[in-house]
Amino acid sequence: MAGPLARLWDRGWSRPVAASLLLVLAGCTALPGSGPISGQVVAGTGSHASSPYELVKLDSDVVSVVGKQPVPGFGHVADKSVSPQLMLGVGDVVSVTIYEAADGGLFIPGGSGSRPGNFVTLPDQNVDNAGNITVPYAGAIKAAGRSIPEIQEEIVSRLSDRAIEPQVVITLKDQQSSQVSVLGEVNAPARFAINPAGDRLLDAIARAGGPKHPGHQTLVTLQRRGKEGTVSFDELVRWPPNNVYVRGGDIVVLSRDIRSFMAFGASGQQGQFEFDAESMTLAQALGKAGGLLDDRADPAYVFLYRLEDRETLNKLGHDTARFDSAEIPTIYQANLRQPSGYFLAGNFELRNGDVLYIANAPISDIAKIFGVVRTGGQAANQIKQAF
Description:
By secondary structure, this protein is α+β, with helices and mostly antiparallel strands. The protein has helices at 2-10, 15-25, 38-43, 60-67, 148-159, 201-207, 233-238, 282-288, 310-315, 339-345, 362-386, and strands spanning 54-57, 93-99, 119-121, 125-126, 132-135, 139-142, 167-174, 179-184, 190-193, 218-224, 227-232, 251-256, 260-265, 271-274, 297-309, 327-334, 355-360. Helix content is 27%, strand content 25%.
C-alpha cells in the first residue's frame, strides 16, 4: 500500500486520512470483529451451486409458514381420547360370585329357602399364563384381553342350562396387568395400577410425584406397543388433546431438556442463553441478549442461523435442488429498520440451537479504521520522539 499511500500524500492528503481511505476502499476485511460483515452474508447466497446456505428475508409469508411451530402430539401413539375399558390380563387376581334365584339349584343346596341373594363365592384365582380362569361346571373361561362384563356374560351363558337363573359378579382383587410405569425426572418414580375409571398422562405423572424440573425444561415421552411420542410438559398442560388416557403396559419417561440459543455481534451481551419459557420469539431473544448496541448495530441486518428442513424452504418458494441433505443451512434476515420488523420478530419463534448474529453498521467499521490509524499515528510519534 506504500505506492497509493505516497500518491495521496503527494496530493496533500494527511497520512492518517490517506490510510483510512485506502482501508475503506479495501473492504475493511482486516478489521477486528465478531463475525462477517452484512455484505458478505448477503453475497454468499444465490442460485449458484457453490452457495453454502439459503438466505431468507423475514416477512409476513415467512412468519406464517415458519414462525409458529406446530404443537406435537401423541396421535400416532394414542389414537383414542375416550377412557379405555379395563381389560383383564395374565397375573390379575379375581373373585367370582355366582347367584341363583332359588335353592336346589346347581350351587345353592335344597332346603335353604328361597330368598333373594342366594350366592356362592369361589376362591380367588389368578388369570393363568394361558389367559384363563376356571369356573365349576363352566370350565376354562378366556379372561385375558377381555372386560369384566364380557366374562360375566359368558359364564352366565355356560351355566344357564344347569343353574337356576344364574347371575355372575366378578371383582378384580389384584391388578397386575393394567399397570403403567412413570420413570425419569420425576420425584417418585413408580409402577402402579391404572384406576379402573381411567388415568390420563397428567394423572399418572402426579401419582409419581410430578416433574423435578420446570415444565419448559421437561419432556414427556409416552411409549406404547413399540411406538413413542414426545411433547414438553408445558405443552401437555396447555394442549388438552395431548393429555391422553394411559393404558396397561405404557411407559412414561420424563427427561430434562435445556434449550438455548447463541448471540454474537453487535448485541448488548454475547454468549449462550437458555430459554426461560416454553417458546421464545426473535424479539424476546434480542431482549434477552441485551438488545442492539446503538453505536454499533445495523438494525437492517439481524441474522438468524439454523438448519431448516427442505419442505419448509420449498413452501417459501426457494429452490433447494443444489443441496443434498434434508436439512439445509439457512439464514433468516430480519430488517428492524422497518417499523413492521419488530412485529415480525415478535411472531417468529426460535428453536433450540439457533444462532443470532447482529451485523455492525458500516459507520462503526469506519470508526474502527480511524481508531486504528490514530493509534498508529500516536505510536509513530512516540517512536519519532524517542529517536
